[in-house]
Design goal:
With 139 residues, this protein is of the alpha+beta class. The chain is 26% helix and 35% strand. It contains four helices and seven strands.
Length: 139
Amino acid sequence: MKSTKLIEVRYAETDQMGVVYHANYLVWLEMGRTQLIKDLGFDYAGLEEKGFLSPVLDVSIQYKQSVRYGETVTVSTWIDSYSRLKTIYGYEVVKEDGTVAATAKTIHTLVAKETFRPVPLSKVDKEWHEAYENACVNT
């Protein structure tokens, strides 16, 4: 399953040349990931209310084409890999003309808020765990 999120590039996201500053892609990835989770019927807030967090362990971004102020991009997000303690999300940022501006992956784990110890999603929310298993691209 792929989820999409449209993003209109704001002036505040650009540098003096009108090009999106590289760190803003991290925000866009989070927006895409949040949309995917929402499309699956869940939300981060509910997970946090239960006492769990999903920190980023690693980020990898490949910048391919500049994005500028005033453009609209689509962030496609999917679950590339899912295992007991690790989820790898895949992303593609595409410009309106179909040009791929960036590709990325983020690696996350689930931890207990109090101890920061890893916890399997299957022990926290069985439905969410099953949704991730079913949505995973590479099983």
